[in-house]
Amino acid sequence: MQLAEEAAQLDLLSDGRVALGVSRGSPEPVDRGYEAFGYYPAADDPKGAAMAREKFLRFMAAVDGEGMATSLPLDQQYPRMYHPDVPVPVMPHSMSLRKHVWWGAGSRDTAVRAAHDGVNLMSSTLLTEANGDRFEDLQADQIRAYRAAWKEAGHQWTPRVSVSRSIIPVTSEDDMRMFGIGGDEGGIGYIDDGQATFGRTYTDEPDKLVEQL
Predict the structure, then answer these.
(1) Which residue(s) pair with 187 in the sheet?
(2) Among 119, 182, 209, 212, which residue's Cβ finds the most Cβ atoms within 10 Å?
(3) CA distance 10 to 4
């Protein structure tokens, strides 16, 4: 609820220019990152996916102005603002904030869920799928699935989709050892104990890459 309150304040102060990205992920190199960053494993939810979704839906309910707590009896309210025992929303409330929330999705399933939840999509630089397809093809499928699910859900506004790429200049032998050099294929790596496809392109002509971007 505190995050919803602070996000609403910032959205109002910035005249609706907030872009709030939310995701369940953790830094890729971190061992058991989902645990280290707060999603403690349970027998039926070892990576905290259910817990993360529960927290996100509660956050979105607060964003939408739903009651998050119950008002006190009148004789205990100062100042007296609400009838007793009524649901009280987070204040302030920004009516535009929902349209400024983005979910960072690492798979087609989470992209579809973001569409049904009614938030924008941030497509990551990795996808937790490794079926041999190129990364850009997997990402295009993810975006198509998101748009189809959005239409199916019947939301009354047009969402946005963002894609991102990390540009890492390789300027030393240490860089070479860290990032390696390969072909133009998306790399296969591991995250959260499973395989993932990473978007990765190498070039010896950075000026041309900048022009393409």
Answers:
(1) 198
(2) 119
(3) 10
Are 203 and 209 spatial neighbours (Cβ–Cβ below 8 Å)?
yes
Q: What is the pLDDT of residue 59?
A: 95
In one-letter notation, the amino acid at residue 28 is E
Other beta carbons less than 10 A from residue 146's beta carbon:
25
Q: Do 141 and 147 form a contact (C-beta atoms < 8 A)?
A: no
Q: Does domain 2-167 sit in CATH 3.40.50.880?
A: no
Q: How far apart are CA 92 and CA 70, in angstroms?
A: 17
CA distance 53 to 51: 5
93, amino acid identity: H
- pLDDT at res. 8: 96
pLDDT at 157: 96
Count of all residues that appear for the chain in the document: 213
Segments in the chain below pLDDT 70: 25-29, 34, 37-41, 47, 177-186, 188-194, 200-213
User: Between β-strands 120-123 and 101-105, what pairing exists: parallel, antiparallel or unpaired?
Assistant: parallel
Residues 17, 99 contacting (CB under 8 angstroms) = no
